[in-house]
Design brief:
heterotrimer, B: 358 residues, mainly alpha, two-stranded antiparallel sheet, 2 strands, 1% strand, disordered N terminus, disordered C terminus, C: 278 residues, alpha/beta, Rossmann fold, 6-stranded mixed sheet, globular
């Protein structure tokens, strides 16, 4: 549970820098006085944490025992086969062995503690393994497609789904994804951040209702968002499916993500900064624009990036409203437009191995984009919004000073 | 708190005024009577915002209202679009299990059932793993691992559904066929409905509600994990130490403190996961072979859910059939909205913060 | 200075609870660190069996850290480390062969802020330690244990009719005494108290102090306090901790409480007990 960073001994000042410890009254241990601070020597410290050696031994023993017994049973006695069955059996045996071995040194509570620890660690491992498995599997199945440069520069317009890997590619899909995500950023970021500013700065009567509704919106299934744009744009307005319609559907998913994240970030701006600015006689707008938003900027960027990471891979809304084509279409406002998630989805339904491999290839690109945006969001938003870099702090202070002088000259009305 | 102090302030005001006067009228000592106690009058503080601020507030409010309107429009458009179907079918829309719009006979009963079955299987698979993983991250993992695991959980939640879909279709399904076969042949005695027509053929078990459910279960693990972990990590340190100081093991401490504290988080996180599972489209669409009938055997090939049905049928539907799909979407919308709102209420009502101050 | 009116404390019932056996706790050259920060230097202290030892000193002098080394709570802080030995009846509780929970089961602790388990009833709170450590006792024994522990903590008369109420339904002082009862219910040899009254009003403080005096014979008590009058009222022995600026905390002077307060040998002790600093 505890880990130790740094060795205590290293930090202690050299021996002899402090007065020597003397016990004034060594013969009267019931009343002792120490003269001055004691010597800061570096005695061998007990450091806590690390792995309980006995726990490790027991676990390894149980693991070896369970796998070998499971193998024996599986190969010779049980009629079934399959990797999952083997591992389930081995796992059950492991828990049994682990419990029995632990019982040699622990009481019942201790054994239960260890078994729960084992089960819970397994759950954590399963989750990590699932993510790792998904990434690895996608990569292994799709790397062949990525090996050909044409995969990034050509489209499938001229080729059938069974074309070899050195023909055709995802260029049209990448253009579509880029345009659609860009349009949805343009639509949803101003709206989302302005809504967040309303919630955290203006705090009007509507705030409660808006917050509840936005919260509810984050959880609306994306297929419903797609259906909404389908009903609005394709049915009511009678337009055909297009990249723009897809972008609108993505915006429905993106607005609540940007709004909720941005609100959290704006709320983290210390109130003192707002009051300091207002006390200089600034208007609320000046305070928001020159103090609140610059302070929260890294967090706001994170909000946008998280929104992008969330919608870049959305498939079901795009499926409904983007129409279908293999052609390259630069114009998002007219005619159907392909995108990466759609490309993956169409590919996985083809009966040809090359098409599926291309789908996995597009999956790698999509996954990489998500990871990049996600990592960027983490790096930029890594600092808590209240705590600024020194450069930022300087900038804010300079702006405060500038505000003070400018407001004294400006007519406040 | 306000009444007497304002009286005092009024008194002080009087003194202040009198001392000012004594200052000017040099040596004369003016003795003032104590001011009559008067009822404090609340003043309305008039704000005269600048035009700039007025514009700012209006803009922000406009954005907030637009967001509200978009949300309302989702409901409005789906309702308007679905009206013909509701008008024709009435309550039958919820009870009918056929989908023959041309013949004037359609409803979503079997879709609701399929959605429920897939959602339930997803929870059965996802819940234990999510609960275990959340406990592991918040209680068992070493500090150095904790941050990485939290990031991984968030990343897993950000992986697009279509990636889960190809993984489930080409990897998970193959792994699960043996399990499905084993379950079917082992349990068909007590649970006769699990028997399939051709038990020896693995293809009897492909594209089933079971496989779709397990895949969706994997999809919802990170959602549930992060909600539960968040709540667990808020369990008060004082109570944790109290349990540990009594000589409790780590699990004893979790049982006595963390789990009771995190109960709302467990329930709320599970409901959020369920909401996501019910609305999951692409993963289900990729795996199932759509069958418009009640799924009686989740292990056997063929099932359907509302979301997948919409995605499968939208392109070939028009008129009353399309209205039916919009109606199905509206039902899904209300279901998930209800579940998620309840989940939100449960999580926010959890004992986090408030009651830990003693 | 330990003349204390214990007549208000309730008579303990004659119940079949095995006798308490207070144990001596001896710290031998204990040093403690948080990361690279040296917070405690060369503490030698004997906490006599069945008596009350008070650890006094200004804030930040390491007395709470020292207390937490005594039942291995110190190591729960990430990055913490320690040297020296803590002997419980002659056995080092930090012996590699001993598990932390074994020591904690024998050395109970009461915290600065009362921390009853809010989801458990009063009854369950008192027996929580027994349940958590997996000790099986009959219903009758449990009832007797609950009554005995609550009486020892001076809380029985106030709560005997509402034992099923949740632990958080009590007032602050009652909650603290509930925590004392909870700690006593596992029949520890030593009870550590980390400023148990700092969050309490004077009346509740008085009740807790009475409780401490009443249990003193049954269990060794070590109490951290920065209320010198409290140390004077409840303790038999005192240890005065002090940390110079940037230096680790250490014991300046230790001895019988009346000696420390009336015949301090160190000038700093005299200044402190007379309220000239801290």
């Amino acid at each position: 549970m505890t880990t130790v960073s740094g060795l205590p001994g290293q930090s202690s000042p050299p021996v002899g820098s402090a007065p020597v410890l003397t016990k004034v009254d060594p013969d009267a241990p019931r009343h002792r006085v120490a003269a001055g601070p004691p010597v800061q020597k570096a005695p061998p410290a007990k450091r806590f944490g690390g792995i309980d050696a006995e726990l490790g031994q027991h676990a390894v023993l149980s693991l070896i025992g369970s796998v070998s017994v499971a193998w024996l049973l599986y190969e010779n006695l049980l009629p079934t086969s399959g990797a999952i069955g083997f591992w389930l059996l081995a796992y059950a045996l492991f828990l049994g062995f682990f419990g029995v071995i632990s019982a040699t040194t622990l009481d019942r509570e201790g054994v239960v503690d260890r078994l729960i620890g084992a089960v819970v660690s397994t759950a954590g491992l399963v989750m990590v393994a699932a993510l790792g498995g998904i990434v690895l599997f996608t990569f292994l199945r799709g790397k062949g497609a990525l090996a050909n440069l044409n995969f990034f520069t050509e489209t499938m317009a001229l080729y059938g789904p069974d074309a070899p890997l050195d023909k055709g590619g995802i260029y049209a899909a990448m253009i579509g994804t880029f345009e659609q995500v860009a349009i949805s950023v343009v639509v949803s970021v101003p709206l989302g951040i302005a809504t967040a500013v309303y919630l955290s700065e203006v705090r009007g009567k509507l705030a409660r209702l808006v917050r509840i509704v936005v919260e509810a919106m984050t959880a609306v299934p994306t297929i419903v968002a797609g259906l909404f744009i389908y009903a609005l744009v394709l049915i009511q307005l009678g337009r055909d499916g297009s990249g723009f319609a897809a972008a609108l559907a993505l915006s429905v998913s993106m607005i609540p993500v940007v709004t909720t994240t941005a609100e959290v970030v704006l709320k983290l701006v210390p109130n003192g900064l707002r009051e300091a600015s207002l006390a200089l006689g600034t208007t609320q707008w000046q305070t928001v624009r020159k103090v609140v938003i610059p302070t929260a900027r890294p967090g706001l960027v994170t909000a946008v990036l998280l929104g992008v990471a969330r919608v870049i891979g959305e498939t079901s809304p795009v499926l409904l409203v983007a129409g279908f084509t293999n052609e390259l279409n630069y114009n998002a406002f007219s005619g159907p437009q392909l995108s990466l998630p759609l490309y993956v989805f169409n590919g996985l339904r083809q009966p040809f191995d090359v098409a599926i491999e291309r789908a996995f290839g597009a999956g790698i690109v999509l996954l990489s984009l998500v990871v990049i945006f996600f990592a960027l969001a983490r790096i930029i938003g890594g600092r808590a919004p209240g705590e600024m870099s020194r450069r930022q702090r300087k900038k804010i202070n300079a702006q405060m000073a500038a505000l003070a002088t400018s407001t004294s000259q400006e007519d406040p009305r | 708190m306000s009444g007497p102090s304002q009286d005092e302030l009024a008194g002080l005001d009087g003194l202040g005024a009198s001392s000012g006067r004594t200052g000017s009228n040099a040596p004369t000592i003016v003795v003032e009577k104590a001011p009559e106690p008067r009822a404090p009058e609340g003043r309305t503080i008039a704000q005269r915002p600048t035009t700039q601020d007025r514009a700012f507030v209006l803009t922000a409010r406009g954005a907030a209202v637009s967001t509200l309107v978009i949300m309302l429009l989702i409901g409005v458009f789906l309702t308007l679009g679905a009206m013909p179907a509701f008008r024709q079918q009435g309550f039958g829309f919820l009870l009918e299990n056929e989908w023959l719009p041309e013949a004037g006979n359609f409803g979503i009963a079997s879709l609701l059932w399929g959605t429920f079955v897939v959602g339930l299987i997803a929870l059965v698979v996802g819940f234990p793993i999510a609960l275990g993983a959340a406990l592991f991250i918040s209680e068992f993992a070493p500090r150095s691992l904790k941050k990485a695991l939290i990031t991984l959980t968030d990343l897993m939640a950000a992986v697009p559904a279509v990636i889960y879909a190809i993984w489930a279709l080409f990897f998970l399904q193959e792994q699960l066929l043996g399990v499905a076969q084993w379950l079917s042949t082992t349990l068909d005695g007590p649970l006769g409905f699990l028997a399939v027509a051709v038990p020896d053929s693995p293809s009897s078990y492909t594209s089933s509600a079971f496989i779709a459910g397990v895949a969706v279960g994997v999809v919802i693990i990170p959602t549930m994990t992060s909600v539960m972990r968040e709540v667990f990590s808020q369990a008060p340190v004082g109570e944790r130490e109290g349990a540990i100081a009594l000589g409790a093991t780590r699990w004893g401490m979790i049982r006595a403190v963390v789990l009771p504290f995190g109960r709302a988080g467990i329930i709320g996180g599970t409901m959020l996961g369920l909401g996501r599972a019910l609305g999951e489209t692409i993963v289900v669409f990729a795996i199932i072979s759509p069958v418009f009938d009640f799924t009686t055997n989740p292990l056997e090939s063929g099932t359907n859910t509302i979301a997948a049905h919409i995605a499968i049928r939208y392109s070939e539907s028009s008129g009353i059939a399309l209205a039916g799909l919009l109606g199905a979407g509206l039902v899904l919308f209300f279901f998930t909205l209800t579940i998620n709102t309840l989940a939100g209420i449960v999580v926010s009502r959890s004992r986090s913060g408030a009651a830990t101050e003693i | 200075m330990t003349t204390f009116d214990t007549s208000v404390t309730e008579q303990l019932p004659a119940v079949p609870v095995s006798a308490f056996k207070p144990a001596a706790l001896v710290a031998e050259s204990v040093n403690a660190w948080f990361g690279t920060h040296h917070v405690l230097a060369d503490v030698d202290l004997t906490m006599a069996a069945g008596e009350v030892t008070a650890l006094i000193g200004p804030s930040g002098c390491g007395k709470s850290t020292f207390l937490r080394t005594l039942n291995r709570m110190h190591e729960l802080v990430p990055g913490s480390s320690l040297s020296g030995r803590i002997l419980l009846d002659g056995e080092d509780i930090y012996d590699p062969a001993r598990r932390p929970i074994e020591s904690r089961r024998r050395i109970g602790m009461v915290f600065q802020k009362a921390n009853p388990f809010p989801t458990m009833s009063l009854y369950d709170n008192v027996v929580a330690g027994m349940k958590l450590t997996g000790r099986k006792i009959t219903k009758a024994e449990t009832d007797a244990l609950v009554e005995h522990s609550l009486r020892s903590a001076g809380l029985w008369e106030e709560v005997k009719n509402r034992l099923e109420a949740p632990g958080s339904s009590l007032s602050g002082g009652q909650q603290q005494r509930l925590c004392i009862a909870r700690a006593l219910a596992v029949r520890p040899d030593v009870l550590l108290m980390d400023e148990p009254c700092s969050a309490l009003d004077p009346t509740s403080t008085r009740r807790v102090e009475e409780t401490i005096r009443a249990i003193a014979g049954e269990v060794t008590v070590v109490i951290v306090t920065h209320n010198m009058q409290q140390a004077r009222r409840v303790s038999d022995h005192c240890a005065f901790f002090l940390a110079a600026q940037g230096q680790p905390g250490h014991i300046v002077e230790q001895g019988r409480t009346e000696d420390i307060f009336e015949r301090p040998r160190d000038a700093r002790t005299e200044d402190y007990v007379n309220g000239r600093f801290g």
